[in-house]
Design goal:
Glutaredoxin, alpha+beta, 9 helices, five-stranded mixed beta sheet
């Protein structure tokens, strides 16, 4: 009888555990109710000290930290693309690959290599789809070079850019910024170097976009106040 009870318990665990894992992963997705009153410390977090941005005067920076191998980043992509196509003119949007462990380094190098070659915007969605739809194992420079050559990217130039000083500098800078942002997961969105949010924090991808818009408008107003104060001081 004890053996029978043990078998039944093991069977229940084997059936229930996968459901719990799926539920946990779904919390990072976008199937959540809209939120209208976002709260600091819950739906988004202040970065202290704030990190200086690199955008033109009068612009608000929105930065996405991501990894090509992250399924949630791939899920977020159509949401952020739709938002980017209709965003306010005062917002400068950019991406940055986060290297939260050494396994993510190859994809970050590929991102910056494609950037220096002028191929990033064209290849970015293709690279995502290759990994998450086609199941391509793009984990080293050789496999990536072979894949990119199928999409009219010069393989030898890519490999040269991959190991360039430019890419090395970008990787080091990315690592420094990720630490300053206090980010430990992707996708994470940084608003003007002052706030960060994720789907888990905001309650889904659509709420992330609402947090971005709310904080970006807030930052624009802060810029206007600052400019006004400077003019009065003169």
């Amino acid at each position: 009888m004890q053996n029978l009870n043990r078998i039944v318990k093991n069977l229940l665990v084997s059936l229930v555990l996968p459901l719990l894992v799926v539920s946990a992963n779904a919390e990072d997705g976008h199937n959540h109710a809209p939120v209208s009153n976002f709260i600091e410390g819950k739906h988004y977090h202040r970065i202290s000290p704030a990190v200086e941005t690199d955008v033109q005067e009068g612009q608000v920076e929105v930065l996405e930290l991501f990894w090509y191998g992250c399924p949630h980043c791939y899920e977020f992509e159509p949401h952020i693309k739709g938002w980017k196509d209709t965003k306010a003119d005062y917002i400068t949007f950019t991406r940055m690959p986060a290297v939260l462990n050494r396994g993510w380094l190859a994809h970050a190098r590929a991102y910056y290599a494609l950037e220096t070659m002028g191929e990033l915007e064209r290849i970015h969605p293709i690279f995502f789809e290759a990994i998450h739809v086609q199941g391509r194992r793009l984990r080293d420079v050789e496999s990536m070079a072979r894949f990119l050559s199928q999409h009219d990217v010069d393989a030898e130039k890519f490999k040269s850019a991959y190991d360039s000083l430019y890419v090395e500098t970008k990787i080091n800078r990315s690592g420094q910024l990720v630490r300053q942002y206090g980010s430990s997961s992707v996708p994470t969105v940084i608003i003007n170097g002052k706030f960060r949010t994720t789907a888990s924090d905001a309650g889904g991808f659509e709420n992330v976009l609402r947090v971005i818009d709310m904080l970006s408008e807030q930052e624009l107003q802060a810029l206007a106040v600052s400019e006004s104060s400077e003019q009065k001081a003169e």
